[in-house]
Amino acid sequence: MRFDDKVALVSGAGSGIGRATALAFARHGARVAVADLDRGKADAVVAEIAAKGGAAITIAADAATPDGIEAMIGARSARSAASTSCTTTPSGSRPCPRAGAASPAPPISTRRCGPTPSSWASPGSSGP
Question: Using CA atoms, how far apart are residues 51 and 93, in angstroms rounded to an integer?
């Protein structure tokens, strides 16, 4: 599957599953908004994507808070034009349910949201 002309907003993208998700979207042609609490880690993933010929931007935000969500959507929407696919990866941890209790749903969601940036960091550009 290709994601050419699509944007993936991935939270928790500075490491682990989020990083792997961001790299996979980029490998399949998406422009990636790399969101993470740690700007340095997010910048490293953006650089990795750009080094492989992809396009990405860094968004330093906490996806576990309403303000963080607003920051991610706002940063992405500030340079917008088309639709975006959003994915969030788990943030934080929860205690395991006790035996016999219903398991809570994992804190992962994927949804469509708003317009996509028209100006992205790509090979040879300095980025946003």
Answer: 32
Angstrom distance (rounded) from CA 63 to CA 66: 7
Rounded to two decimals, what is the model's pTM?
Answer: 0.65
Q: Are 61 and 37 in contact (CB under 8 A)?
A: yes
pLDDT tens, per residue, the chain with 128 residues: 888 888 888 999 999 999 999 999 999 999 999 999 999 999 999 999 999 999 999 999 988 888 888 888 876 554 544 455 555 555 554 444 444 445 444 443 444 444 444 445 444 444 44
Pick the CATH number of 7-91+105-117 from 3.30.1120.10, 3.30.70.660, 3.40.50.720, 3.40.190.10: 3.40.50.720
